[in-house]
Amino acid sequence: MASEESSAIESLPPSLLELLSNSLILDNTVPHLPLSGIFALSRTSHSFRELLFQTPSVFRYVDLSKCRGAYVSPNLLTRIDIGGNSWRAERIDENLTEDEFYAGPLRGVLSHLRRMKVLANVQTLVLDGLSSVTNDLISDIVISPDYNVRLLSIRKCLNVNEAKLQQLLRHLCRPSRPEGTPRLQGLYFFSIPALTPWQKEREMRHNAAGVLTLGVTTSQGAQLGASQLDDLFVFDGVDRWYAPSGRIMVQGYVQRSPWEETLLACAGVISFDAVLCTHMHEDMAPVLHPASRDYLAEIKAGIPPLATFALGPGGCAGCGRAPHNAPVWGVSDPREFPLLWPPPSNGRLVDAVRPPNKVMQDGRIQPQRLIVSCTWCLTNRHCDNCHRWWCSDCYNPTNSKKLSDLERLNRAGLSYLPSREELSNGSGGEKDGDHIKVFNGLCVENCLVSEWMAGAGGGGMWG
What does the pLDDT read at residue 199? Predict the structure, then answer.
């Protein structure tokens, strides 16, 4: 009988505690559990509690963006001086500053982690969308010895004052900073968090009502001159920086961004989910559009603009080359690459910026290269639909047949449909020069022809 019982016990599958006692299984399981789930599991037995709270890697990655204890209702943000709110009536103190008032719920959660003696283990901290994130709290996280945060995400936090945050970051990266500081290596601030299903449904309703225009379609008959914004909502992942995504950022798109000086001051010290347009800017400087050249010379001359376009690794549509010295993974400094979402659970910067593999058609893997640009470098040389672009060697507008091309294109749009050869090659008898590459935001060689062809069928904008 005893032998039968022992054999039956041996045939049982391992318990959950035995599985999680394997560090490899534990490290790959914990990142998928919410913080509340980890605490609930720790309350089931002393063995689980000891395992979870004595293993530093368990709390290496903490996401509080959906933690109810850190949540402040947006309705409260407009009632701080009105009163009548029970939460405010219980918690308000005449000596509290506005930052202390808003940060109260989140500080309570962090204090709980400190009492549990796990706060120092947190290396990746996600606080996206929390109104309880304030500048004073951010300062504590990046300066106080109680924290050891290497990667911090504060995307869409309503109570963060950007000017104060920029000042704090420049102070952290000052040349006279103490050795070994700052502990913070990466800050997620610019990218837009993925929409929840109900948020996506709301955006679709707004689009149908004409409230928000999300840009050019990928089908024939696209709207001429429309802006490309789809990727702000769809490309929330590691591919958006390394695909021909087009415009991927709102910040710094229409005008110079106040963040440019901060990114320049933090270069090589703190990485961001954004980069400056340094390599493309240097490459395009001799052939910039006159309006772009005048604007950049007048506004913050000498400071690279924020890169707002991702062009993919394919390079120039004419010759295939990338801007001179464009970052190549495995060759360039990892700090030249933007932070990718999601942040790694191990808190390592090199994993936070590691790009996806560049797989060729024959299955070979080649080094990934980052090709990005600002708005001004791409003026009249980037297609808003297919995102082809042309380098300074393949298209110099100062030597182009712009006037004759524009006359021909306008005439074609009003009276007849030109052939592809006529649009891309022009008519004979003209002087040497580069033909215009982009007309009304669409490339002449591909997308503009498709637009006119769609218009001829009665369904396009010319029909």
Answer: 54
Higher pLDDT, 90 or 450: 450
Q: Report the relative pairing of strands 61-63 and 124-126 from DSSP bridges.
A: parallel
What's the distance, CA 62 to chain centroid?
A: 20
* Residue type, position 249, single letter: M
Q: Is 189 in contact with 273 (CB distance < 8 Å)?
A: yes
pLDDT at 379 exceeding the cut of 70: yes
**Strand, helix or coil at 141?**
helix
Q: Residue 426: pLDDT above 50?
A: no
CA-based angle 373:378:383, to the nearest 5?
110
Alpha-carbon gap, residue 326 to 306, rounded angstroms: 15
pLDDT digits (tens, 9 = 90+) for 237-274: 447 899 999 999 888 878 899 999 999 999 999 999 99
Torsion angle (degrees, nearest 10) of CA 71, 262, 336, 177: -90
Q: Are 450 and 443 in contact (CB under 8 A)?
A: no
Four-residue CA torsion sign, 96, 97, 103, 107: negative
Record the pTM. 0.81
* Helices H / strands E in the chain, number of each: 18, 12
pLDDT in tens, 29-86: 998 888 889 999 999 999 999 999 999 999 999 999 988 777 666 555 554 444 434 4
Rounded-to-integer distance, Cα 65 and Cα 387, Å: 34
Is-contact 190 154, C-beta < 8 A?
A: no
Peptide bond between residue 182 and the one before it cis (omega within 30 degrees of 0):
yes
Lookup: tokens for 114 = 């400190």
CB atoms < 10 A from the CB of 250, how many?
13
Is 125 in contact with 62 (CB distance < 8 Å)? yes
Q: Which of 188, 180, 170 is nearest to 124 (CA)?
A: 188
456 three-class SS: helix
| Beta strand segments in 328-369, E | 358-359, 365-366
Phi, psi of 153 (to 5 degrees): -120, 120
CB 54 within 8 A of CB 48: no
pLDDT of residue 233: 38
Cα–Cα distance between 155 and 191 in angstroms, integer? Answer: 7
Q: CA-CA distance, 142 to 185, in Å (whole number)?
A: 10
- What pLDDT, on the 0 to 100 scale, is given for residue 142? 97
Which contacts (CB < 8 Å, 24+ apart) does range 113-116 have? 113/59, 113/62, 114/146, 116/53
- CA dist 315 and 393 (Å) reads 12
